[in-house]
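<purpose> Linking amino acid order to shape
<body> The protein record starts here
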Amino acid sequence: MSKISQNRIVVFHLLNDFSGSPMILKTVLNGLLKKGCRVDLVSSKGGVLDTISDNGALKRHYYSYNFSMKPWITLLRYVWTQVYTFFFAFRYLFSSNTVFYINTLLPVGPALAGFIMRKRVVYHYHENAWVKGSVYKALCKAMTFLASDIVCVSNFQRNTLQTTRRTLVVPNAVADQFTSELHPDAERAFNAKNVLMACSAKMYKGVGEFIEIAKKLPQYNFTLVLNCSDSEMNDFLKENKLVVPDNMTVHSRTDKMYLYYNNASIVMNLSDTSLFVETFGMTVAEALLAGLPCIVPPIGASKEIITEGENGYAIDSHETALIASKIDGLLSDETLYRQMANAAITASKAFNEQHMVDSIYNLIVNGKN
C-alpha cells in the first residue's frame, strides 16, 4: 500500500460558511483528495465545504454551529463545539498515520486532543491574532505550543508570530474552478462604473466608510456583499444605523461571488487597521484574477499583493476623500484604468492553486517544510 493511501487527514474547521478560510480549505481538500489522500472533515453545515467533490475518500462529520448577534451566545456555542470536538477526536486514538489538520486558530479542542494523543497537528493559520483581542492571543499561544507545523498565508502574518520555527508560508490561491468563471474585460469593467466590496458584517471591515465614499460619488454605482444571511444583513444595517444611498446595493452571502466580480470596475478592502489587519485578503486576490484594480489598507498582507500605483492603491480607510478621488481618477481615465487592469492580471499569476496544494500536501503527507 502506498504512503498516500496509508495517511488519514482529519480536518477540523469551526464555521462552514462562504468566507475566505473555508474557501481556501475547500481548494486544499479537493487537491488532497485528487492526490489519493483519505480525508475526514469535521465541521458545521451550510457553507462552501458542503460542495467538496466526493470521490469516496471523504468522510463528513457534522455538528450544529453558527454565530449569534449576541456575543455571549456565540461564546457558549463555541465552547460547546470545542468540548464536543475534543472528545470526538479520541476516536482516532488507535488510528495510525493520522494527521490532524486544524483550519484557523479556533478549533483548539481537537488540537489539544491531537497533542495529547501524540498525533501530528498541522495548523493552517489564517488570522492575525495580535490585533483580535485576548481570546485570539491565547489561541495563538496555544497553537505555537500544540502545533507540529504551522502554515502561514503571508510573510506579514508569519512575522507576527513569536516564533518562526516550524512555519511555512503558503500564499492563498484562488480555486481553478472559481477562476474559470471570471472573465476579465477591461473595457466592460471600465464602462460598468461599479465599485465592489465584499466583507463580513462588521463595522471594522469599513462598511461605514464604504457608504460614506458612495455618498461622495453619486455618479458611480457601489455594490456591497456581506457574508451573512438576509436577516442578519438587515439587523446589522439597522443596529448600526447605516443609511444606504441610492447608488448602492447591498447583498447577503452568495456562493457565486464571481458574478459580482464580472460586473465590477474596482474592488475595495477598507479594513480599519487600528482594529483589524488583513493577513491575506482573498477578495483582493480574486479581484486581480478578474482584472480589477484594488484599493487596500496600507498595513498588512495586502501590501504584498498590491503595488502602489500599478494595480491599485494602498490608502487608510479613514481617508475617504482621498479614496473617492482615486476612484474618480480611475473611472474617468480609460487609459490609466486599462494599464492598472493589465497589471492586475499580471500580479494574479502568483495565486496558483497547484502550488498551494502541492506545498500543503508535501508538508502534511511527506513532512517536508
Q: What stands out?
A: The two ends are 24 Å apart (CA to CA). Residues 1-5 have pLDDT under 50 and may be disordered.
